[in-house]
Amino acid sequence: MTKVAAALLAATVNALAPAGAARLERPNIVFILADDLGYGDLGSYGQRRIRTPNLDRMAREGVRFTQFYAGSTVCAPSRSVLMTGLHTGHTYIRGNSKNNLRPEDVTVAELLKRAGYATGLVGKWGLGHEGSPGVPTRKGFDFFFGYLDQTHAHNYFPTFLLRNEERVRLRNVVPDEGAAGQGVSSNRAEYSPDRMLEEALGFIDRNWDRPFFLYLAFTLPHASNEAKNRGMEIPDYGAYRNEKWPEAEKGLAAMITRLDRDAGLVLGRLKKHGIERDTIVFFSSDNGPHREGGNNPDFFDSHGPLRGIKRDLYEGGIRVPMIVRWTGKVRGGRVSDHAGYFADFLPTAAELARVAAPAGLDGISFLPAIVGEGKQKEHDYLYWEFYEAGSAQAVRLGDWKGVVRPFGGNLELYDLRTDLGERHDVAAAHPDVVARIRAILKEAHVRFPLRKPPLTAAGTSSPPASLR
């Protein structure tokens, strides 16, 4: 962050955060993020075969959102939207790239740290590489443990993880380890999600008596892409070991149930310290379900009634679970159809912490929709852009959904009110809506110079020249 931006942020926080504010007025904030978990992968969202009792209980005790969206359809830009409150037409990291957040990119952690919160990140970052200005400890986090590079995060049995800015050696062995630490392990001694859970619980133990923000970005149930058809890496299949399912599907189910177990342990630690009522907990996923590591997302109907998966801007690629629990503040068992997305988290956290959010955000606080009180402001539209698979843009405008593939191509139009599966393109019948969405596509994208082209799984790509 520049000195000017830091000074303005500090002044805003000091003006609006009264000393000794009651804890219930400034709650602890926990955001648990799954990796490639589909809209239909939880029991509370219709899953019938994978067991998720803790997250289903969280939904019963809180509010479940049915029209909430990730920031993108792959991990890095989605997390950039979550951290900065800017959609993919404005946030700096717009693809699975080797780019790093810049000093001037303000994160939710920076905002909360200056408001007096202890700030911790455990899990996968993907927004800054070793030695860069984008590492978590230079973007507002007091403590970090996990993966910096999203490719490194493919490996569940890596040779190292990062604690703050130092490598922590693990007992795993990875022959032919790549420069980013990726590869396939031959000796699997330490499972990274277990180490990350331990560190997350430790962060709560150290900070339970002061306001804290914990961003717990689990890698479950992402695949180990380098392991190809054996990429659903988990120590054992647990309750699914005797199922007559393909091995990859046993692995996926076991990973999701382990994620559920770990989320339950986090909730349990809050209860142990007597801070359930003082803590608001969010749970979501960074994008839709994957077809990687041998997994078939159709096997468990991981996208539910939606069309598409990860790397699509159809609903299945970007509509995700969002559950929020705040004991004593949020009436349990509520279901909300409020349409929001990851850009809304930063302004919501700012309102919870009683500080002003930076100007010019794309996000809107959705706290009224969470607590079920007050008037919830609605978005004029939601916007996404994506640079892989030939590029795409998408807009949600009320119940209308517009998708363009590639940039500058024909616009497909769907009425989500009657066609949730996006099967019937009605663009020809609604030229006025098409024109409005075309105008939004031009308005929402802001050009800026990338330091280098985003690197994708398919090779090297960059925004089309018309959008740079």
Lay out the secondary structure.
Layout: H1 3-16, E1 28-34, H2 53-61, E2 63-69, H3 75-84, H4 108-114, E3 118-124, E4 143-147, E5 160-163, E6 166-169, H5 192-207, E7 212-217, H6 247-272, E8 279-285, H7 315-318, E9 322-325, E10 334-341, H8 345-353, H9 367-371, E11 382-386, E12 392-397, E13 400-404, E14 411-415, H10 431-444, E15 455-456, E16 459-460
Parallel strand pairs: 1-7, 1-8, 2-10, 3-4, 3-7
Antiparallel strand pairs: 2-9, 4-5, 5-6, 8-9, 11-12, 12-13, 13-14, 15-16
Helix pairs in contact: 5-6
If you had to describe this structure to a student in words, what would you say it looks like?
It is a single chain. The chain has 468 residues and is of the alpha/beta class. The protein has 2 domains: 3-15 and 25-379, Alkaline Phosphatase, subunit A, CATH 3.40.720; 383-467, Arylsulfatase, C-terminal domain. Helix content is 24%, strand content 18%. The protein has 10 helices and 16 strands. It has helices at 3-16, 53-61, 75-84, 108-114, 192-207, 247-272, 315-318, 345-353, 367-371, 431-444; strands spanning 28-34, 63-69, 118-124, 143-147, 160-163, 166-169, 212-217, 279-285, 322-325, 334-341, 382-386, 392-397, 400-404, 411-415, 455-456, 459-460. Strands 6-5-4-3-7-1-8-9-2-10 form a 10-stranded mixed beta sheet, with helices on both faces. Strands 11-12-13-14 form a 4-stranded antiparallel beta sheet, covered by helices on one side. It is globular.
